[in-house]
Amino acid sequence: MFYGVDLTSRLMLGTAQYPSPHVLQQAIAASGAEVITVSLRREGADGAAFREILAASGARVLPNTAGCHSAVEAVTTAQMARELFGTNWIKLEVIGHADTLQPDPFALVEAARSLCADGFQVFPYTTEDLIVGEYLLEAGCEVLMPWGAPIGTGHGLRNPEGLRAMRAHFPDVPLVIDAGIGAPSQAAQAMEMGFDAVLLNTAVARAGDPVAMARAFGAAVQAGREAHDAGLLPPRDMAHASTPILGLAELA
Amino acid sequence: MRIDLNGAPVDTAAATLADLIAERDLPEHSVATALDGQFIPRTARAQARLAPGARVEILSPMQGG
To answer: Is A58 labelled a binding residue?
Structure first.
């Protein structure tokens, strides 16, 4: 449940870097994603085609503040996005460093506080830091989006223990793994760990066949969620025979 | 009057942000605007006066991650 919205699919898909608008449209459909992320930019060559895809996809739009390096920039971008896309949802990114694309937690909390007070429903791109998470909740966020790994790296869940601790620390807060996912197995892992959704872009957009990869991610996210709900076997150190010993023949 | 539009110098006769959008034949309902770093809502564009050197951003929906 994300700000009162129940989603069937737990995959959120980015719309950037696809080889063509047509492939993007097919990939959204194949993934089953009901939420797609978008941005605001100075008008480019393919703006009109993109607006048509947005309208045709039927997906809920989650605008981002990608590229913002200060709270002020992010707040202004969010205000522009709210008017343009007609939604209070905002994926809040405040980048701390251009090379690592690591969030700036201080500016993030500042921007989140301002936006929540202004009626936005904020999806903050954050790290697995528990205290930053608490500050974001106190600021008014009802969802947290910890990174799996730095944006675009495809490293998956780089700090699984930290993420597991975060899941345990915020049992009732919707948590979305955002960024760094490179393979469907990594998305499934996040879902098995009990995260509520996965948001990814590059791994699909830059795949050899983005449409097939979108389908694979959709299936992996669903499998991971079902596995989590079904109750996973806790790992154990000693072997344990799965075939019953009782009734074993004596042949030696 | 010379202003800065989306990072490029532009000569304009527009007195307001609304005039500028009309002058450049932009779709007023599918852009968002900022003047000197401040968001200007659609309904306030006609009151947003441009001064020489004004920094105007006119943004559109684009792909994003």
So the answer is: no
What is the tens place of the pLDDT at every residue in A72-96? 999 999 999 999 999 999 999 999 9
Q: How high is the mean pLDDT in each 10-residue block of chain A (252 residues)?
A: 93 95 94 96 75 87 95 97 95 94 96 98 97 98 96 94 97 96 98 98 97 98 98 92 90 90
pTM above 0.90, yes or no: yes
Amino acid identity, position A101: L
Catalytic residues of A: 91
How far apart are the two ends of chain A, measured CA to CA in Å? 60
Chain B CB contacts of A54 under 8 Å are 61
* Diameter over CA atoms, chain A: 80
Task: Tell if the CB–CB gap between B65 and A41 is shorter than 8 Å.
Answer: no
Q: How many CB atoms lie within 10 A of CB A210?
A: 22
Contacts of residue A142, defined as CB under 8 A and 6 or more positions apart, other chains included, come to: A2, A3, A121, A173, A174
Instruction: Flag whether A154 is marked binding.
Output: no
